[in-house]
Design brief:
The chain is mainly alpha-helical and about 60 residues long. It is about 75% helix and about 0% strand. The two termini are about 25 Å apart.
């Protein structure tokens, strides 16, 4: 399960780093195509983690 957590953290870090450094995202005030793709990867990794933990790891509001 460590690899699932690593994938999630890597996807989150990559997306957040892109959002901080992408000139197009800042100039247009909307995510660029790369940001949308990275967010999709992050969401898939998050979904995989939930499946791996049986959904017990869901944050509560």
């Amino acid at each position: 399960m460590s690899s699932v957590n690593d994938a999630l953290e890597n996807a989150r870090f990559t997306y957040e780093q892109h959002m901080r450094t992408c000139r197009q995202c800042h100039a247009d005030a909307v995510p660029c195509a790369v940001a949308k793709h990275l967010l999709r990867i992050y969401n898939l990794a998050r979904r995989d983690r939930l499946r791996a933990t049986g959904g017990h790891d869901m944050p509560t509001a």
